[in-house]
Amino acid sequence: MPAQPLPFTATRDGVVVTIRVTPRARRDEIDGTTDVAGPRGTERALAVHVAAPPADGAANQAVLRVLAKAWRLPPSSLEIVGGTTSRLKRVLVRGDADILFRQLSERIAA
To answer: Which of 11, 4, 15 is nearest to 73 (CA)?
Structure first.
């Protein structure tokens, strides 16, 4: 069991990842995990920084590109399913939940 909860929830379609986005950053990167206050109370989120501005969906598309590249997944397997206009987002990663949960957990811990 990890020392801190992971920002993942298994679903029948795959894994939903809670993301805290910082747009207009210096560079695109995943910056570990953080605690955030959300609609479900305080929860764990993956901190993602993107250089794109939060206009016309540019930051959302950048988030999906950063995650797909970092996790070595096809971009088509990722979809923002909550928080499209918020910094706190939910991203669905389609696939086998057990396999994805293990793979993503390892990649965040690395």
So the answer is: 15
Superfamily of segment(s) 8-109: YggU-like (3.30.1200.10)
Sequence spans of domains, the chain: 8-109
Summarize pLDDT for 17-65 with one digit per residue, the tens.
999 999 999 999 999 999 998 677 888 999 999 999 999 999 999 999 9
pTM for this predicted structure = 0.89
The string of pLDDT tens digits covering residues 57-88 is 999 999 999 999 999 999 999 999 999 999 99
